[in-house]
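Priority: medium. Attachment 1 of 2:
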């Protein structure tokens, strides 16, 4: 599974937020066994931005219920120990099942996220991605490698089915990646539905007055990876 989190630092707290996330939060979540790897990204490129930062945590849980049962009490323990700082707003977070993957080991400069409209979820993840004109990468001997993971919400989970997220990690820089995906989908992240955090806090993210789209394509600069 993967745990995706979109977040926004409070005004004037970006440096403190970055330092805490990198030096405290990510190592804590690996050391307490919640996740086996965590990746951080910062939004770049055109289009609507649901949040400036995205983290994706990898785990070996079999379904959403198992994931939350393992993560919830560990997160609460960190919160009670003062390890969760009030430096930012969680705009949205969700557990997602891995549907397909084609992953190789290579340097990562840019993440491209491809989503359906998460305000109007539904349908089969594989069928949806097959309808997206994904750019064909240049062959590795001539260009740079790319990895893909297709994720979706658990049909039996609390968030309901049909929120699809494809992750394309590339070693090409953001400018080249944005150019390669130009013309595919609507630029930016999908606007996010209302959200309540694991600690019962309702997100204060204002609703986005953005038209619906079948596909959203956003680009993120890779910041940090910890774990496997």
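Attachment 2 of 2:
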């Amino acid at each position: 599974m993967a745990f995706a989190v979109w977040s926004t630092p409070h005004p004037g707290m970006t440096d403190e937020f970055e330092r805490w996330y990198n030096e405290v939060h990510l190592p804590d979540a690996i050391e307490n066994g919640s996740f086996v790897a965590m990746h951080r990204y910062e939004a770049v490129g055109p289009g609507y931005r649901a949040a400036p930062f995205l983290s994706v945590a990898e785990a070996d849980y079999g379904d959403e219920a198992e994931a939350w049962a393992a993560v919830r009490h560990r997160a609460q323990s960190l919160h009670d120990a003062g390890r969760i700082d009030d430096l930012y707003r969680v705009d949205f977070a969700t557990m997602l099942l891995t549907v397909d993957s084609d992953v190789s080991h290579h340097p990562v400069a840019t993440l491209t996220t491809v989503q359906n409209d998460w305000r109007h979820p539904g349908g089969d993840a594989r069928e949806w991605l097959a309808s997206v004109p994904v750019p064909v990468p240049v062959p590795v001997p001539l260009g740079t490698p790319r990895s893909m993971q297709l994720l979706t919400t658990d049909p039996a989970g609390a968030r309901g089915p049909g929120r699809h997220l494809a992750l394309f990690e590339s070693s090409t820089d953001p400018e080249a990646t944005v150019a390669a995906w130009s013309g595919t989908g609507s630029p930016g992240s999908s606007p996010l539905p209302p959200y309540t955090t694991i600690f019962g806090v309702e997100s204060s993210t204002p609703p986005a007055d953005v038209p619906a789209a079948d596909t959203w394509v956003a680009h993120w600069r890779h910041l940090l990876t910890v774990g496997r």
